[in-house]
Amino acid sequence: MAQPQAARLFNDLYFNRLEASPAPHGATWTLFPLLPAELRLHIWLMCLRQHRLINLYLSAPDEGPTAYPGPDDLSHSRYYKDVNHRGKVISGRGYTLRMAGHRDYGAPALSPLLRVNSEARRAALGFYHIQLPFPVRATEKTLYLNAAYDVVHLCPRGAEGTRAAALLADFLHDVVAFDQKDQGVAHLALHKDFFPSPSGIHLTPSDLHPTAANSFTHILTDTLRSVLCIVLFRPNERGRAEVSRPAGWRFTQTFPLAPLASRATNAVHWLASDPRVSVAFDLGYLSLAADPGVLWRSWEGLEKAFGVAQTPAAAGGGGFKFYICPTADWVSEIGSRDGEGATEEEKGLRTLLAAYLRDENEDWRRQRRWQSAGVQFQSMSLDTSSVADAATFWRMQEVPSTAVGMWLFAPEAFNRCLDPGRCNFNVSAAKPGLLLFDV
Question: In a designed cystine with 124, which of 113, 192, 209, 221 is the match (CB 3.0 to 4.6 A)?
Fold first, then answer.
């Protein structure tokens, strides 16, 4: 069977890979050790200074769903008693932590420089000021993070509602305890399961150990700089939309495709504004699987419960930002079409993505044949009459618009609801940011 052609992605255009040939596997430069030590350190740091999304699963402990948190002193007394090597109180691990995609976790999953040589390892250990130990198969491993560069993406497992939120507080406390700079997580991405529908997060100081409550208040006030709430499009396919859509169905080519959650880390670039030419044509109708207003009000309620009042950056505050991050879960679509589907290790991300985009295009062509049923379609390739000028149209045809990433919207962008009772929005007045993944 012929292999699908490589996908044309905006990611490649942005990272200058459309024409560049990859370096040979295992390529070395034998003169590197002869460089001055200061220059070698600068090169190591250049490799380390990149934004990453770290995918973690946060699971409830084994002792049962009611053991912690709890209102009585007995359940609290088991936690927040021990100290680590820095003399900092730790939570006592009312949770377990697992990295995505790594059954046998090793340091190279987070940074290959930890295993290159002693000089590179020293540079990496100095850069990753957060070094959180966690058990893996009866051994202890370490989570290496840099607060300024890393976005920690947490998915709860075996817990929901107040219990999941309490585990989040424990985890964030421990990160600060093992941080050489006492900073903790600055950029946090939360799976939608932290926001149970329809009421959202419910957590108060009385649900936590007193030390945990004080620590969580400090983290909400002084540590967190951004929270990214990831939501999915409804439906996931870019070539589908609700039949009630006023403009009919059209291929929303700029809807970002989610990165693989099975990867432990994903290198990302955080763009303040999505630079793709055709973005504006797809923002007039977004159907989401969750109500952004509920998510934002839920977080505001959490801050209020802990006495936190965020001051907007425009008013001289610390600049905390809450983002709604829509993305399309194409990986689950691959699995639903091919049974269990192939893993990334078996086929490779780019091969999987190329196959998905090919199937997506064929599915769109089949849908267009349904016009006889009276459903209005818009072309996958826009007409020149629908854009400002012919130059813009031809640029849209030549430049790849498909991107692996997620949009970054302020909650206020979703004030214009097109369908009360459903999560359909016109956000054309907004200029979303883009979290673009290096795939």
Answer: 113
The whole-number pLDDT of residue 127 equals: 94
Pairing between strand 321-327 and 226-232?
parallel
pLDDT score of 2: 45
> How far, in Å, CA of 246 to CA of 371, rounded?
16
* Residue appearing with tokens 């709860």: 156
- Dump pLDDT digits (tens) for 90-134: 998 778 888 876 554 554 457 788 888 888 899 999 999 999 988
> Which of 431, 427, 407, 409 minimizes the C-alpha distance to 418?
427
Tens digit of each residue's pLDDT (9 = 90 or more) over 225-240:
999 999 998 877 776 6
Structural tokens at position 76: 């609290």
Q: Which of 395, 149, 401, 131 is closest to 253 using CA atoms?
A: 401
Q: Is residue 26 part of a domain?
A: no
Query: C-alpha angle with apex 32: 30 to 34, nearest 5 degrees?
Result: 100
Buried b (16+ CB within 10 A) or exposed e, 200-210: bbebebebbbe
Backbone dihedral region for residue 307 (phi beyond 0: left; psi -120 to 50: alpha; all else: beta): left
Of 9, 350, 43, 409, residue with least CA distance to 231: 409
* 331 vs 312: CA distance, rounded Å: 36
In degrees to the nearest 10, what's the CA dihedral of 290, 294, 300, 306? -90
> How confident is the model over 403-426, as a mean pLDDT?
88
Token digits of residue 40: 């070698």
Least confident of 64-73, 292-301, 426-435: 64-73
- The proportion of the chain whose per-residue pLDDT surpasses 90, expressed as a percent, equals 32
The tokens for 55 are 């995918």
Instruction: Tell whether 17 is covered by a domain.
Output: no
* C-alpha triplet 224, 140, 171: angle, nearest 5°: 20
Cα-trace Rg, the chain: 23
Domain span at 370: 40-437
Q: Give a yes or no: residue 9 inside a domain.
A: no
Q: Which residues contact residue 70 at a Cβ distance below 8 angstroms, ignoring those fewer than 6 apart?
A: 76
Nearest to 130 by CA among 159, 76, 173, 68: 173
The answer to whether residue 44 sits within a structural domain is yes
Task: Give the pLDDT confidence of 25-35 residue by residue, as tens digits.
Answer: 556 777 888 88
- Domains identified in the chain, total number: 1
